[in-house]
Design goal:
This protein is about 35% helix and about 20% strand. By secondary structure, it is of the alpha/beta class. The protein folds into two domains: about 130 residues, Nucleotidyltransferase, domain 5 (2-Layer Sandwich); about 170 residues, ATPase, nucleotide binding domain (Nucleotidyltransferase, domain 5), CATH 3.30.420.40. The strands form three sheets. It has a five-stranded mixed beta sheet with strand order 3-2-1-4-8. Strands 11-10-9-12-13 form a five-stranded mixed beta sheet, sandwiched between helices. Helix 4 crosses helix 6, helix 5 crosses helix 6 and helix 6 packs across helix 7.
Length: about 325
């Protein structure tokens, strides 16, 4: 069967920084993928129109698109809406699934972006052998997709699994959600950068971080690898907060593994090992040495796009 006669799903991953999308077949092979700066899309309509126009310009609307799967922050699976996402400029309730469906003329389904990443990991990635695990997405914010007995946990209203907004530091850092001390304000790309100014250290004023005009999380990891003491302290602190939080979260569903995904996770096994060590230090005895920390195997394949597209085959067809 050639690519023109195949059926494809359009997978869309809406992120706080970039929105990525791709045409994916049933085997998880990506025919086409691209991305757009989310901040350049002043409204959700702008995103829908950009993706439609890009696929049309590149000639991919000639292909049979069976349906659209969307992963988005604060995505409500039951309503197909984004609701009050703190890391997006679009405010309020956005009926994104309906908007895509009307534009493309095919069914569309939406879920939380971390749920989409978890599905991608389960079907195509490093969690194929797992029925009980949690994907932790470490990007602009921190998301989580919880799978129990092989099924995603949605809760009664579609918002289960918001680990990033569990408060871990009493009266801690202010969060975009309006509260203080949420995990994502410490263990995310933005959290790493915030630690530059907020973490006390005797090495702070001697760090090469001070030479950077606009440091990013990847800069901190790079400098830590190069032996910068302050950068190393920031990475260690990030791992400590995350590992301690994950130790507490084990009590909820006793997962076999946490699968780390996103920019911070791509820094490598050393960070995952730090998180694992801090998790074990804080875990209840009944959970010690039972929970793995895995790194996503889909960083070069776009787990969120694959997961979002899998919604089409798993949900719409049913």
């Amino acid at each position: 069967m050639n690519s023109m006669t195949k059926e494809y799903a359009l997978g869309v991953d809406v992120g706080g920084t970039n929105s990525e999308y791709g045409l994916v077949d049933r085997n998880g092979d990506i025919l086409y993928e691209s991305k757009v700066d989310t901040k350049d899309c002043k409204t959700a309509d702008d995103l829908v129109n950009h993706i439609f126009s890009d696929l049309k310009k590149e000639g991919y609307l000639k292909y049979k698109i069976h349906g659209i799967g969307i992963g988005a922050p604060n995505g409500n699976y039951f309503n197909g809406t984004i609701e009050f996402a703190p890391n997006l400029k679009w405010k309020g309730v956005i009926p994104l699934a309906e908007m895509f469906s009307k534009k493309f003329g095919v069914p569309a389904i939406l879920t939380n972006d971390a749920n989409a990443a978890a599905l991608g990991e389960k079907i195509y990635g490093n969690a194929k052998d797992l029925n009980d695990f949690v994907t932790i997405t470490l990007g602009t914010g921190l998301g989580s997709g919880v799978i129990v007995n092989g099924n995603l946990v949605y809760g009664h209203d579609g918002f289960a699994g918001e680990y990033g907004h569990i408060r871990v530091i009493p009266n801690g850092r202010s969060c975009g959600c309006g509260r203080k001390g949420c995990l994502e304000t410490y263990a995310s790309a933005t959290g790493v950068v915030r630690s530059i100014d907020e973490l006390e250290s005797k090495h702070k004023y001697y760090s090469k971080i001070n030479e950077l005009s606009e440091p990013h999380a990847e800069d901190i990891f790079r400098l830590a690898d190069e032996g910068d003491d302050f950068a190393s302290e920031i990475i260690d602190y990030t791992a400590e907060v995350l590992g301690s939080a994950l130790a507490d979260f084990i009590c909820f569903n006793s997962p076999k593994a946490y699968v780390l995904f996103g920019g911070i996770a791509q820094s490598g096994q050393a960070f995952a090992d730090k998180v694992k060590n801090y998790m074990e230090e804080s875990a209840l005895n009944i959970y010690k040495d039972k929970v793995e920390i895995r790194i996503s195997s889909l960083h070069d394949k776009n787990a969120a796009v694959l997961g979002a597209s899998s919604l089409v085959w798993n949900e719409i067809e049913e």
